Every structure is written in structure tokens, then in C-alpha cells.
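pasting for the record
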Amino acid sequence: MTRSTLILALGAVVVAGCERPTAPAILPNADVVSAASATTFSGEATVVQAQLTPLGVLTPIGVNLAATGALPTSGGALNSTLLQLNVTKEQTAGLLSLDALVGHAHTVGQGKQSRAQATVATLDVDVAGNRIGATFLEALASAVCDAVGGATATGSSVITDLVVNGTGYSVGTQPNQVIVDIATLRVIANEQTRKSGSTSDGDITVNALHVTAYAPNQDGSRGAQLADVIIASAHADVHCGLCTDQGDDFTTGGGWITAGAAPQGRKNFAVAGGYKNSQPWGHLTYLDKATGLRVKGTGVLTYKSTPTDKGTTSVIDGTAQLDDGSPVRYTATVMDNGEPGDTDEFWIDLHNGYKSGGVLGGGNIQFHQKPSRCP
């Protein structure tokens, strides 16, 4: 009996702050939140995660791509991005192969809310012989405290052009849509799971796509589980306290532009910008599929956010590297024009003359506001 292990992950960027719990002028109901408690956070986002159990093998094979890891309870931000995601059947005992582009995950906890987002484009995956594809997937999760310490958790997902074993499916907005459910395969879209707790706790996990493959029994019934694969997972939870005093504003997002274009004409991106300990930070991943242009950010030089009549516009200037290794400066201008993100905008200006941008065809830009100072 052999032991097989595969763990593929990308390091994350962490932004952390401090908390200073203080009693407000009007105390909330004691049943909602303790006057001595501070708001605490948890959140996590992952683009690809899988547990594979080949027949006769006791130790599962784990796959983890573009994962933020878990937020500390004090909050902050974690980001992870991969320009190209790849898993081969040679790595997974023949149970999983996967190709995808521009995987992006982030999670944020500050002020009165926790948020998480995971996006990925051009998915082509084979799970135990079942071929599944989609041109874009996104999961969003949010847990928010109200003025008196009550928590609300919400989530959503987007899947564009889903195909399972040659059959196309239209995915709506309702949670826990069972797309396929046969003896050897179960596919769920917009899977949402909530944990119960007190009124001051909000907890939700959203999986854009959850695929489970099984070995058939001799009578054709469902047998042992072979593979459990989740694409684009976002988790957010918050325990509402009285006051947090941490963090600065920043902007994150992922998706694609060139709405209406064929998949090969889309331009996929993942972006983030802000300040950490008074220093600019962030990342950029960009792919123009029509031209083959690939850009990977190497650093952020400046970041500025400006309120607009629609929301917030953020401008991120940084350094990047092209696919051939040559350096290039960039300016990314992103516009958070409200939820669910279908009017948000992304514009990119490479200082070698390349420019592109427009309204998102899929995805979301999120401006994370600087928390109010504690009294």
C-alpha cells in the first residue's frame, strides 16, 4: 500500500492591525453581544481544493491551489493568485486533471465585516473520467454586524458556460442547485452552508462548484467516494463585538472584461491594492487571451482611492513582469460601482503602450472601506 500526497499552494499577503475594544455611548442588548467582547473575524478563500481517494489507498491525496489560508481572529487581509493552474493525472493516481487561468482568492476582516472572494477562468477539469468546463467561476461570502451587534451572513456565486460531460447547463442564482446526481457523479452549483450560533455570530461558506465522483457497485448503485473537488470557495464569519480600530482602506477584485466576447476573446484579471504599515502593497495578474499577453505584478508603488457618485474608484501603480521576463510598469484603475459587480470596471495601462479596459463581463471589484475610529 502506498501513500500519496500532493499539496499545491501559493503564499499569501497578510495585512493585520490591532483592536481596541471600547464601550459605545448606547450599549446593545446583552443577549446580542457582551459589553466586554471585541469583534473577531474568520475568513478563507481557495480557488481549487480536492480530496482524492484511489481505491485501495487509505491516505487521501490533497490538492490545494491559490489558497489564502485562514484569517487571524484580529482580522486583516489575505490574498493569493496564480496566473495558470494545472494538475495532472500522474500527480493524482489518475483521478484528477485540471487546467485553468487567473485564479484569485482573497479574504478580509476589519471594521464590522468579514468578506471572501474566489474567482477563476477557463476551467477544464476531469474528475474520475467526468469532463467539466466553465469559462468563469466566482464565489462571494460576507458576514456583517449591524448597529446593535447582530450578525448577517450572505453569499452568492457565478458560473458561466457550465458543461458537464458534453451537456451545457444554465446556472441560476438560487443556492444549492443540483446539476447532476447519478450513481457515479454529483455536481452542485452555488453550494451554501451556514453555521448556527448566537445572534452575534454570522458564518457562511459558498462553493461555486462542488463535484463528487464515486465508484459504481456491481449492481450499479453508488459505491465508494473517489474524488471530492471544489472550485472557487469563499468562507466568511464574524463574531460581533463593540468596536474595532484597525486597518486602512484597500481594493480587491477578479473577473474578466470584454463583455459579450467569445471566451477566447476575454481578458481575465485579478487585482489588489492598498497600504500595509503605511507602505503600498497589492498584486496584479492579467491575461489577454486574444493576444496571449500575460502580466504578473511584482510590486505596488502607489495606491489612491476616490469616492464617486456610483461608488469608489481606485488607482494602483506598480511594477510587473511580462511572460518573456521583461519588466514593465502598470497603472490599474478599478471602479467598485456597487453589488453584485455587473457595473464594476477594470482598466489597465501598461507603460509600454498597451491599454485595455471596460465594464466587467463577470466578477467583482470590492472597495474595503477604512473602519471608523473607536471613540
